[in-house]
Design goal:
Length: about 260
């Protein structure tokens, strides 16, 4: 049997190729397949995860890969893979490729994983599920709840629209090259919230402003970001990590009603 030529991970792309097929199969199995007909894999590399996603037989399966060497490898070794997009997911026009509900999966490059999830938020009406592997610290942050030291901006913004699950931890030695940190596999499933009940852009500003000074109480962090008519909100004595998504929604509504807007 002909030996397949390897693709070597590129440091500038943040590539760490998973080499444990049992874990790859397990990650591919995290997609529920419920509520969507299209699946997009980000950064397939040498296709270790792609192989098991193809086995699942999704009706509309695409991969997006920025590395031309990996694209060539996939074309050579996965002839059944018909939809390979060459490019950067962060600049991808999702609506150009997908008309219906979509799931996203991948062994996400650590250096852009946070940006991937912020982009998912912009397409939350289309992306109904996302699962995959990223740095354990970031995975825990996304899934942590109020009161946790890791609870932060990404936790609140994602949990406003998705149910988050931390599924399992992956050790360093199953990658080539091994990263310096452990990885975590998570799944996010779109919840039933269509409208938050407040201005969503202002909600994002409030959450970011609150956590930008997370050691301070909300009174200090909010006042530093917004000019307000009043200073008597009943939860101003709390710190941002103590507030649930619903509490941030109520705070946003109060700020909208009491914010001084410069003309």
């Amino acid at each position: 049997m002909e030996q397949r030529k390897r693709v070597f991970p590129k440091k500038n792309l943040g590539q760490h190729f998973l080499k444990d097929k049992a874990i790859a199969r397990k990650i591919a199995g995290t997609l529920t397949g419920e509520g969507y007909s299209s699946v997009l894999e980000i950064g397939p590399g040498m296709g270790v995860l792609t192989e098991y996603l193809l086995e699942r037989g999704f009706d509309d399966f695409h991969v997006i890969e920025i590395d031309n060497e990996s694209v060539h490898y996939l074309n050579e070794n996965f002839p059944e893979l018909k939809n390979i997009i060459t490019g950067d997911f962060l600049s991808m026009d999702i609506d150009k490729y997908f008309d219906s509900k979509l799931a996203i999966i991948g062994n996400f490059p650590y250096n852009i994983s946070t940006q991937i999830f912020f982009k998912v938020l912009k397409h939350k009406e289309k992306v109904v599920e996302i699962s995959g592997m990223l740095q354990k610290e970031v995975a825990e942050r996304i899934c942590s709840g109020p009161g946790s030291k890791t609870y932060g901006i990404l936790s609140v913004l994602l949990q406003a629209f998705y149910r988050t699950e931390y599924l399992f931890t992956v050790p360093e030695h199953v990658f080539s090259p091994p990263p310096k940190v452990k990885s975590g596999v998570i799944r996010l499933t779109r919840n039933t919230i269509e409208q938050l009940g407040c201005d969503e852009k202002l909600f994002t500003r409030v959450v970011k402003a609150s956590f930008n000074q997370r050691r301070k109480t909300l009174r200090n962090s909010v006042r530093a970001a917004f000019e307000l008519k009043r200073d008597d909100y009943h939860e101003f004595g709390l710190r941002p990590e103590q507030l649930s998504v619903d509490q941030f929604v109520r705070l946003t509504t109060w700020i909208a009603e009491n914010m001084i807007v410069s003309e």
